[in-house]
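Input for the complex:
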Amino acid sequence: ELVAHLRIRLAVKPLAGKRVVITAGPTREPLDPVRFVSNRSSGKMGYALAATAAELGAAVTLVSGPTALPDPVAVDTVRVETAEEMLDAVQERAADADLFVGCAAVSDHKPAERLDRKRKGKGGFALELTPNPDILAAVAALDNGPVTLGFAAETHDALAHGREKRAAKGADWLAVNDVTEADAGFEADTNRVTLLGPDGEETLPFGTKHEVARALLARIAPRLA
Amino acid sequence: ELVAHLRIRLAVKPLAGKRVVITAGPTREPLDPVRFVSNRSSGKMGYALAATAAELGAAVTLVSGPTALPDPVAVDTVRVETAEEMLDAVQERAADADLFVGCAAVSDHKPAERLDRKRKGKGGFALELTPNPDILAAVAALDNGPVTLGFAAETHDALAHGREKRAAKGADWLAVNDVTEADAGFEADTNRVTLLGPDGEETLPFGTKHEVARALLARIAPRLA
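Predicted:
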């Protein structure tokens, strides 16, 4: 933590005066008080982005789903559980931000019904799932909203899915990674991403999630108003 | 960790020479490489039981689902993900054990189909869930198997459900708790349990999960062959 504070003191500040809102981690979508649907996101990439943005001088809010990670130093961290809660927390803060980074692995679906008692019965059943709100698309659709950077975690045809996703969500930038690679997946400390943006596509150097965070923010910082 | 080692050196050893197998944590049941169904178990109660049993002299194997907890000192810890993997790990070890403690919150169900690529499509859908194996019942059914202690995490009518569960699974002992209580739930550091056993029912003193672990093992140790 001392090192983190020193880094903040000593770094050059290309994001000084900028407000950055970042989402991280998975969301959990409960079907009853005990059980939920979720995903393997560890939150490491989003937390690395939040810490790095703070080092670069930004005022950072991190809206995080459930993770085992400590709050990053000098970052306002808001803990949420579901996609709906994450959307609410983001909507309160995104309109005033300069940059929104949607790094959370938001569950695409949630159980249609949330029981207030533990579901009983051992037989099989069909769990009805309904679509969750699309947080990145909602922020990208704001009038005078922030610049947007999204992430696509893919298991096949990563670039093709990333291009579709950038267009469908209306994001300015989209970082694509193939989470089936052991050194670039949800639980890894390293990552390998291709950044799709207004100027084209660039595969960034392989590195730790902090190094990838610095590379991403170095490219986007000059493009903030 | 030094303290943990000292406790092991200094404790009286009512479980010396005994082999104890303990399950802990949730299980995760994948529907594709990224998404899964799971539950809120933190693993804290099972890890406290494993650490305590080792302090009391037992040779302890902890079969743990995904948790954020470090391996307990002086405990052989085996990490698994799904209920099927947990069952396999337990079956390799339970027949030779003196005591089996089923503290994991094993998912009652798993997705009927596990996709090897990330599921695509934003619309709603019905996720087919099928029953998982019952690990506690499988161990309780072993000929010349270990003494068994199970746990029931309930959200209503806890004692009634616990009595049914003890009978249905054939467990010797069953510890019941109401996980809707803030100081006795999955993520709490404290617990309040009622122990159902061959001699009747006893509500143990409220305490830390380590204190509750000591109280449980103090009652069961004299009953091991």
